Amino acid sequence: MEISGVSSGAYTSAAAAVDDDEKLKKAEEEKAAEDAKKTEKQEGDKVELSSKDDEYSESEIQKKVQNYIQNILYTTNLTDESSAQLQQYLNTFDVAKFIKSYGPFSTTAEISAALYAVTAGMIKRQEDE
User: Residue 75 and residue 122: Cα distance in Å, rounded?
Assistant: First the structure.
């Protein structure tokens, strides 16, 4: 079967355009790979070790615990029993024991995660009952 009405120049131009696109894509991919290698070499393997300066002090942890529990008490529609349990936990909170069990802490997120683990069983909303 013969195709008529298409000049060989048009075909050659279209094929050349496809080849140019492929070469351009390949060049961009190679450049991206080189940039990634440079970035890896610059960054290297970084290891950050926690030091005493990065850890929260007992007074800072005490303050964060108080804020965490107070937020739960005031923003959540808790049952009376649940509120009493949380208030009792706050009143008898032992910072040293908390750090020994769950710490040391270098971020607020770590403190919040530990507090969630401790208080999750105490939190009961009125609508849950």
Answer: 15
User: Would residue 49 be called left, alpha or beta, if left means φ above 0 and alpha means ψ between -120 and 50 degrees?
Assistant: beta
The residues facing 108 across adjacent strands are none
Q: What are 38's two structure tokens?
A: 């440079």
pTM: 0.53
Q: Which of 124, 115, 114 is nearest to 76 (CA)?
A: 124
SS3 84: helix
Contact of 108 with 72, CB cutoff 8 Å: no
The pLDDT tens digits of the residues spanning 93-126 come to 888 888 888 878 888 899 889 988 888 888 888 8
Beta-carbon count within 10 A of 122 CB? 18
Residue 67's Cβ-side half-sphere holds a number of Cα atoms within 13 Å equal to 9
Which residues, in sequence order, are CB contacts of 104 under 8 Å at separation 6+?
50, 55, 56
